[in-house]
TrEMBL record:
Organism of provenance: Paenactinomyces guangxiensis
Pfam families, per the entry: Glyco_hydro_10 (PF00331)
PROSITE patterns, sorted: GH10_2
InterPro entries (alphabetical): GH, GH10, GH10_dom
GO biological process: xylan catabolic process
Taxonomic classification: Bacteria, Bacillati, Bacillota, Bacilli, Bacillales
Protein name (database record): Beta-xylanase
Length: 348
């Protein structure tokens, strides 16, 4: 893999493209960050990817490189090579970084899941992980998905190594440790299928309301927003987001994509455009919706086809980095209405 200096050197050969305007320029006026998940391997290897990334987005989230199995594949040996490359790229291009993710049931290293640790040991291991990783990125990662996907669809807490070892309070403890490690970082809980109202969203609401009341440090809730044109648009999404901001929390759309059954047709692209536009419109209508992040920006590199057989084309750029109708929907929404209240969220 190329070193950070190599990536920087390649950019200096005139591939920056940062003088063309992109979504980030329109987003600035609307006081919302517009971001994407980034695959650092592709960042290293594809010039076109770097160019579009720098031009369009002012927020980045590592798609996999800050997950536990990536950072600590061998116990005690922390490897920040790939994640630092992204953080450095972001710094050079004036992008904020959303860290993803510290406490999850998935993509854990084998030494941890197969380690036969006691509950006390697991709690210590988690504490050390949060402190080590957040201290490493202190001041360079502005927001963290501290806890990822804690709920089942019916609103019960998901069975996980953390729930089993520490009980439901693993969430509050993790947030507290995260706050101690980097008091300026914005701390989020992030989940999917909570965009509309329903048992899972109600459970998230109840959880964060309780955390707020107990004085646990939490800044916001991440609504992943992995949608598909065949499933319908989430019910009452704006009201749903608003009830969270009414608690004094921020909200962000953190992993937006809108998949479709293949093959791609103009009709499906038009439907997808409508979904992307409605998602951005919803975010912009909610004071306190601080960022809108897509989970990959090009169909050339998206998790969707590998996970859902026969589905894909879920992002705003096609496989050749040509903007799709969905892209123009985002741009149109960002240019449409004026007068969104200003926010100091990202400046602190
Ligand atoms: O996009 C990620 C993909 O490359 C990984 O293989 C996968 C493994 O679990 O994780 C994907 O990202 C997920 C994110 O971390 C959390 N929310 C759901 C995302 C899509 O599965």
């Amino acid at each position: 893999m190329a070193s950070p200096t190599t990536i920087a050197a390649m950019e200096n050969k005139g591939v920056k493209g940062k003088h063309d305007s992109g979504l980030r320029d329109y987003a600035k006026r609307r006081v919302v960050k517009v971001g994407t998940a980034v695959d650092v391997n592709v960042l290293t290897n594809e010039q076109q990817y770097r160019k579009v990334l720098a031009r369009e987005f002012n927020s980045v989230t590592p798609e996999n490189e800050m997950k536990w199995e990536a950072i600590e594949p061998t116990r005690g040996q922390l490897n920040f090579t790939a994640s630092d490359q992204l953080v450095n790229f972001a710094r050079r291009h004036g992008q904020v970084v959303r860290g993803h993710t510290l406490v999850w049931h998935n993509q854990l290293p084998q030494w941890l899941t197969g380690g036969n640790f006691t509950n006390e040991e697991l709690e210590q291991i988690l504490h050390k992980h949060i402190i080590d990783v957040m201290k490493h990125f202190k001041g360079r990662v502005q927001a963290w998905d501290v806890v990822n996907e804690p709920f089942n669809e019916d609103g019960t807490l998901r069975d996980s190594i953390w729930l089993r070892a520490m009980g439901p309070d693993y969430i509050a403890k993790s947030l507290q440790w995260a706050h101690e490690a980097d008091p300026h970082a914005k701390l989020y809980i992030n989940d999917y299928n909570i965009e509309g109202t329903g048992p899972k969203s109600d459970a998230m609401y109840k959880l964060v309301k309780d955390l707020k009341e107990r004085g646990v440090p939490i800044d916001g809730v991440g609504f992943q927003s992995h949608l598909g044109i065949q499933y319908g648009f989430p019910e009452n999404m704006q009201q749903n987001l608003q009830r969270f901001t009414d608690l004094g929390l921020k909200v962000s759309l953190t992993e937006v994509d809108v998949r479709m059954p293949l093959p791609v047709t103009d009709e499906k692209l038009a439907e997808q455009k409508d979904y992307f536009g409605r998602l951005m419109d919803t975010c912009l209508r909610v004071k306190g919706c601080e960022s809108f992040t897509v989970w990959g920006f090009t169909d050339a590199h998206s998790w969707v086809p590998g996970w859902f057989t026969g589905q894909g084309a879920a992002t705003p750029f096609d496989e050749s980095y040509r903007p799709k109708p969905a892209y123009f929907a985002l741009r149109d929404e960002l240019t449409k209405r004026a007068g969104r209240p200003s926010s100091e969220f990202w400046d602190k």
